[in-house]
Amino acid sequence: MTTDIAIAQSAKMLRIAQVAQKLGVEEEYMEPYGHWKAKISLEFLETLKDKPNGKLILVTAINPTPAGEGKTTTTVGLGDALNRIGKQTIICLREPSLGPVFGMKGGAAGGGYSQVVPMDDINLHFTGDINAVALANNLLAALIDNHVHHGNELGIDVRRIVWRRVIDMNDRALRNVTVGLGGPGNGFPRTDGFDIAVASEVMAIFCLATSIEDLKERLGRIVVAYTRDRKPILAKDLNAQGAMTALLKDAIKPNMVQTLENNPAFIHGGPFANLAHGCNSVIATASALKLADYVVTEGGFGADLGAEKFVDIKCRKSGLRPDCAVIVTTVRGLKYHGGVALNELTKENLDALEKGMANLERHVSNIRTHYGLPCIVAINHFTLDTDAEIKLLRDRMATQGAPVVVSRHWAEGSRGAEDLAKAVVNMVETTPSNFKFVYEDSATLWEKINIIATKLYGAKEVITDTAVRNQIEQLQQDGYGHFPICVAKTQYSFSSDPALRGAPSGHSLNVREVRLAAGAEYVVMICGDVMTMPGLPKVPSSYGIDVDADGRITGLS
Questions:
Q1: Residues 275, 532: contact at Cβ < 8 Å?
Q2: Of the listed 71, 314, 316, 501, which one is catalytic?
Q3: 301 carries an active-site annotation
Q4: Catalytic: 73?
Q5: Using CA atoms, how far apart are residues 82 and 29, in angstroms rounded to an integer?
Q6: For the whole model, what pTM was predicted?
Q7: What is the pLDDT of residues 5-15, one digit of tens each?
C-alpha cells in the first residue's frame, strides 16, 4: 500500500521561488529555508494593504473519531481543485505540533494525493516557529523566578504565579512539578507545571497579532502572577516583552510551501483547537486574501471548537469574515457516532449511519443558524463506502438545506475534488453570508459560556465549583468581561465527556478551571478532564518512525 510519506517523498516539487512567482512575490521578498520552504517578508506584506480581499472559505468538520475524518486533506484537495478550475487559491493551515506527530494523531500535512510538501519537514521542526514560541514562553518563566530570587521588588506572591512553562511534546510527567529545589542558590521552591507549547498564550498572541508592534504590546500585557493583595503582575513589569519579541521577530513572518500539485500554501502558527483557539495566524490569512481569488483555511477539530473559535475569537479580533463553510464528514465517522465499534466501521450499517447523522445535523444547524454562514457538506470518500450509505446521507441532508458533495481528493487529488470546488464557487456567488458572532461582547463571561454550552453543545446547564465561579466573577469585575471565551474541552464530543458520541442533549458542561489570557484577549475555560499537557498513548506513533542509512524518514503519517 502506498503511504502518505511515500507519496510526498516522490513528489516533483518546484523551488519555492517559482511557487511564489505564481502570486507575484518576487524572490527578493522571500527568505528561503532551503529549496522548498520560505518565509515572506513583512515589508512585502505591508504593500498589500490596499488590495481587495479574495473570498474566504472555512473548512471544518464533525466531531473527530478514531477513524479520522480528513479535514486537512480536504482543505488541501479543495485548494488544489479551485486552482484547477481557474481560481487562484492559497490554502492556509496550522503548523503541526511534535506532540501529536509522535503521539497518537500523527502529522498534519494532509494525506494521499492531497498533501502539502515537504511533508517530513513540515511535520518535524519546519522553520522553527513553535520552538521560538516555546523559548519566548520559557524566557518569561525564567524571568519570573529570577525576579523573585533577586529580591522580589514587585512583591510577587509565589503562591499566585500563574505562568507555566511549556514543551512541544506530550509528557504527562511534567503536568505538575516542583521547581527551585537544591538550596538558596537555586531560587525559592514552588509548585509549577508544563503545558504543551501550542497551548501557550504566546502561541495565541503570535497567531492573533497583526504586526511586530502589536505582538510586543500584547506580550507585555500577559498577566504572569499576582501580589498578596491580588494586584496583577504583567510581563512588561518584568521588562520581558522586548526580548520575547526578539525571539519571535522572524517566526512571525508567514511560511510558504506548496501542495503536491505545486500550488501555494501558507502554514503558520499552531494553536490546538481543543486547548487554544485552533486557527492559523491572522497575518498569514489576511495576507493570502490579498494575493488570491480564494483562500481556504481550516478551524481545528469539529465545528463546536475550531469553527466557533474562528468566528468568535479570530474573526472578532481581526475583522476577517468567511464567505462560506465546508463541513467535512465521512460515512464511517458518522457510523461511529451512531454507536458502531471501530473494527466494524467498514461494514454497511444504515441504521447506525442514520443515528450518527445527528452529529452532522447539529454542526450544520450551528453553522447556518448561529454563525450565519452558508455551508456545504463534503463527504471525504473511502473505497468501502456503499451507494446505499451515500444515498441515505444525501437524502437526509437535503432536508437541512446543505448541499452534499462526494469528494475523492485523497485518491485523485484535485480531479477528485473538482465537484466540491464548483459547489463552493457556486455557493459563494449565489448565497450571501449572514455572518454573525455567537454572542455579543457586552454579555458577561458567565453568560458567554452558557450561550456556547446551551446553543452549540446542547447542554442544559454549565456547572462549576464556588472557587471557579468566584474567579469568573473577579475577572468580570477586573474589566475582562468583554473578552471572548476560549473553551478547552474534548474534541470527541459536543459535551465534556469524550464517550458521549452523536449529538447528546441535556448534559452538564463542567468548567473545571479558568485562565486569563490578557495578551491574547480571551478567557480560557477548561472543561471536564481535558489536559493542557497531553500524554502519550500506550503505543505512540513514534514507535513506527525511523530513518534509513540515506537519511530518508519512514513511518511518518
A1: yes
A2: 71
A3: yes
A4: yes
A5: 26
A6: 0.95
A7: 889 888 899 99
